[in-house]
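#help-structures

NK: newbie question. if I give both the sequence and a SMILES, will the prediction place the ligand too? trying with zinc ion
OV: yes, paste both and it writes out the complex. here, I ran yours:
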Amino acid sequence: MDEDWDEELFEAAKELEEEIDLGVPQGMYRATVSGSRIQLVSLGALLAGTDSPVGTMFAEVEEAGVTIADLATSGDDDSGELTVTFLAAGDPGAEEALTRWAGLVGYRRIWFPDRVVDVGNGPRFMDKASVTCPGCRHVWTGGGRGFWIGIMSRRAFPAFCLLCGGDLPQWELLPRPTYTTDCPPLRRRGEGEQR
Ligand SMILES: [Zn+2]
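OV: that's the protein plus ligand as C-alpha cells.
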C-alpha cells in the first residue's frame, strides 16, 4: 500500500472534526469554489447569510470570480440528494466542480436552483484522491476500498490537515490508470450493502 492516508488516519480526522463540531446538523455545509478547488466548512451560526450586515459583500466575492454556496442534504441522508443554494455565483465552473465532487463523496443527485443533475457513477475502489495542504504543503493521498467507503459514508473528504491543523480543500481524483476501467464503481449508500 503506498497511500499515506489509511483508515486509522481517517478515523483520527473524523474524531477531531467531531470534537470541534459546533452543534450544526450533519449535512449542512458552506462551500467555496474557486477554479476546481472546493473548500468545505460546516455551516455554523457565525457565517453570514445574504440578509446579514455583511451580506452585500457576497456581490464582491462574485465579482472576484468566486462561488459561495450552502449545501444541504435532504432529511433522509441516505437518499443521496444534495441541494445547492448560491450566495455568490462568480465561478463559471462551480456547478461542474460541485457535481464532480458530489459524485466522489457518494451523492447521487444534486439540485441546483434551475436544474437537477444525476452525478453518474461513484468512485472505483482502485481510484486515488489527493490534496495538497495549503498550510504545510504536505500532499495527502488516499485510495482503496476502506478509504472510499469512509469518504462515502460521511459524504466529504477530511477537511483539515492532521499535521498542521490547517483547513484542507476537498480532495481531487487523481488520473485513473487504464486498468481501473474494468473495476466497477463502488455502491453508494442506499444502493445495497458494500461488498
Ligand atoms: Zn498541513
